[in-house]
Amino acid sequence: MMDMNAPQLSLGVIGAGAMGTGIAQVAATGGIDVIVFDTRPGAAAKACEGIAARLSKRAAEGKMPTEDADAAAKRLHPAASLTDIAPCAIVIEAIVEDLTVKTELFSELEKLVAPDAILASNTSSLPIGAIAAGLQRKDRVAGLHFFNPVPVMKLVEIIRGPDTTEAVAEALFVLARRLGRTPVLVKDTPGFLVNFGGRAINTEALALAHENVASPAEIDAVMRDCYGFRMGPFELMDLTGVDVNFPVTRFIYESFFDDPRLRSTPMHRYKLETGQLGRKTGRGFYSYA
Ligand code: NAD
Questions:
Q1: Locate the 3-hydroxyacyl-CoA dehydrogenase C-terminal domain: which residues (predicted)?
Q2: Which of 32, 65, 94, 248 lies 20 to 30 Å (CA to CA) from residue 264?
Q3: Has 157 been annotated as catalytic?
Q4: pLDDT, tens digit, 9 for 90 and up, residues 136-189
Q5: How many C-beta atoms surround the C-beta of residue 113 within 10 A?
Q6: DSSP string covering 80-115
Q7: Are residues 124 and 227 in the same domain?
Q8: Looking at the structure, do residues 199 and 164 belong to the same domain, yes or no?
Q9: Which domain holds residue 214?
Q10: CATH of the domain at 81
């Protein structure tokens, strides 16, 4: 297995959405060559260009040296096809939160990469053991769970599945630190630590709104101004994307055999079904027009 501090380390990022783009950014600024792939035509190139533009803006504002921004931009490479990922020592998957789609991708990836390459998933809730279940080599699969927005949020959960070796987990600790993150080892349980802990706040907030105790804006204000949260649960759901947090909420609820504490509400589902996904669609619990 390659040393995660090696200068010539090359990292593959699959999925150029909110999370993949953030992961690619912190990897490039951490001195790592990044190859980005997305099935949406043009998405990987757009993500790389967006990161380069953001870094150059930061340099112009005096927040980072111009040569560092330029060097990081040069480390970003959009992939024309999934096979371009083949030389990567580590691949981080950040695609749609769907177990079938993820397992299909991992079985393609294991045929492409070197036998000692690490395959990591940024899943918010799906069991790492289930993502690895059908693979020939389950020992090199792990969870590497970043938080949104990646360049700002320092915490990273490292999740070992039932077969993940200690060496793989240790390599991910080294990588996470190289990316300027704070890694924590958590168990392969539904929602891991952060998203399971956060359910209590989200589902309670949804229930309060559902029961007309208070509006989303009032609940968010209480969480910010009284409890000192940086943003309220509805603001956070709009930032995450309802298409991301609804399946996570449902998965955790089902995983705990329909525990009512973890139940969502019809309004949450309605936002999903009507495409009111949050910031990404201009409307969610709030309007961003
Ligand atoms: P997103 O919808 O912004 O991006 C997903 C990207 O994956 C899209 O660009 C899509 O075209 C691409 N994609 C879908 N299927 C693909 C495939 N088979 N191969 C290659 N590309 C594919 O989603 P996101 O918010 O970046 O979330 C990605 C993952 O990260 C999910 O597993 C999610 O649960 C997890 N996550 C999300 C957040 C968050 O706050 N949004 C936080 C932590 C973890």
A1: 191-288
A2: 94
A3: yes
A4: 999 999 999 999 999 999 999 999 999 999 999 999 999 999 999 999 999 999
A5: 20
A6: SSGGGGTT-SEEEE---S-HHHHHHHHHHHHHHS-T
A7: no
A8: no
A9: 195-277
A10: 3.40.50.720
The domain boundary, picked from 153, 186, 219, lies at 186
Each residue of 239-273: b (16+ CB within 10 Å) or e?
bbbbbbbbbbbbbbbebbeeeeebbbbeebeebbe
Q: Could you report the predicted ipTM of this complex, rounded to two decimals?
A: 0.99
Q: How far is the CA of 98 from the centre of ligand 1 (A)?
A: 10
User: Are 33 and 171 contained in the same domain?
Assistant: yes
Residues in the chain: 289
Q: Which residue's CA is the nearest one to ligand 1's atom 25?
A: 18
Residue 282 lies in a domain: no
264 is catalytic: no
- The runs of H, that is alpha helices, within the chain are 18-29, 43-60, 66-74, 99-112, 128-132, 166-178, 194-210, 216-225, 233-240, 242-255, 266-273
Percent share of the chain, pLDDT over 70: 100
CA–CA separation, 51 vs 283, rounded Å? 24
**For ligand 1, what atom is nearest to the CA of residue 93?**
29
Q: List pLDDT tens digits, range 113-136.
A: 999 999 999 999 999 999 999 999
Q: Which of 145, 108, 154, 140 is nearest to 126 (CA)?
A: 145
Rounded distance from Cα 255 to ligand 1 centre (Å): 21
What pTM was estimated for this model as a whole? 0.95
